[in-house]
């Protein structure tokens, strides 16, 4: 094989370049990279990989902390497959190319007077990467980004193009909305949308014990409730987002820069540098961090409320537990941190989602609460994550597919009642495991 190759888009790229994810904890050296400019070019790339005996994985922006996209075969980069294909105002759907970043989709939809119903707090990911790994926000009644999918187009292992929806190939649709890259390469997604609306966000500090005591009420009374708990403190920052008749009152430009950029990113990053160098200082830093942001209320369009810039690099583990178990789980997590001697400089994030009908969704079949633990990039995280994971799994937790965990198919088949449906579909669509990698071998079996 030559040292360079011609990609499907006609550009030359080097062989065996190292790919790294956003968190810096995963790397891979693919045999070649391909950037197809059309569905036909992508299908051809899959067929040629089969001829060469190579595995295939697609990668978006690398925001997963697992090796779900890593491969030593053909790495598909979908950044040329971007943009909106079609807006259907009668059906209130939008069909978008798989490589489109969420931030571009959100802006384009707003320009059309439309919006997704719910979204996560980061919008750097591609739409296919976000949905394939189960990216979610928080919601009492509205679920993950994947739950808003109405149709999918994907290239399967033999290079054919398959479309699916509730009416067309419904068994594929049930699984492929969160397909882990195991069923094919997603090339386009059709989302349900609605007329753009306003949300009023109310952010305020609240004692940890009060949040736990009032959790059910805070969840029931708000369309979107979440909070951040700062380990080594009894403090949280809460956020309640609810629809508003207006008028819009966005955060002022100066205030937004000071709170969202200077404090939440600049000062927070500097504090984490100090904490990494001097772990004994972390509890004091946590107490200062928990008091840094004051209460504020603002009203804006959805993506301006749901999403926020995340420039401080970290590594993350997140588990989905039954919603009724969240308070007990958090109490156990706090007790573990207090007795462990660990120094945790990043807050713990807590969100919720209603039950959905997606085969391997972390909220499949049950109302769910998400608990995410983080460590600053470059700081040892295994002791903390191992202890947290032990607590999460005692509550039948389901790990986020794109975040650090150690679970395997034996465990996952016990917490996902429809696990066998997914693996049977995989056997049918990819019998030769063209889309296999080490991560999928671990979580789905060989």
Can you tell me about this structure?
With 446 residues, the protein is an alpha+beta fold. The chain has 14 helices and 22 strands. The chain has helices at residues 39-51, 102-111, 127-132, 170-176, 208-213, 215-221, 253-277, 282-292, 302-306, 326-340, 382-394, 409-415, 419-429, 438-444, and strands at 4-6, 12-14, 19-20, 27-28, 32-34, 56-58, 74-76, 84-88, 93-97, 114-115, 149-155, 161-165, 185-192, 194-195, 198-207, 224-229, 235-244, 296-300, 314-322, 348-353, 368-376, 398-399. The strands form six sheets. It has an eight-stranded antiparallel sheet with strand order 18-15-17-16-20-21-19-22, sandwiched between helices. Helix 7 (253-277) runs antiparallel to helix 8, helix 10 (326-340) packs antiparallel against helix 11 and helix 12 (409-415) crosses helix 14. The longest helix is centred in the middle third of the chain and has 25 residues, at 253-277.
Core attributes:
five-stranded antiparallel sheet; 22 strands; 446 residues; 14 helices; alpha+beta; disordered N terminus; eight-stranded antiparallel sheet; single chain
What fraction of residues sit in β-strands? 15-25%
The number of helices is 14
Q: Compute the average pLDDT.
A: 91
**What is the 3D shape?**
globular
The separation of the N and C termini measures 28 Å
Gyration radius, rounded: 22 Å
Largest beta sheet, briefly? 8 strands, antiparallel
Oligomer: single chain
Helix fraction?
A: 25-40%
> In terms of per-residue confidence, which ranges show pLDDT below 50 for 5 or more consecutive residues?
1-14
Sheet with the most strands: spatial strand order: 18-15-17-16-20-21-19-22
Number of strands: 22
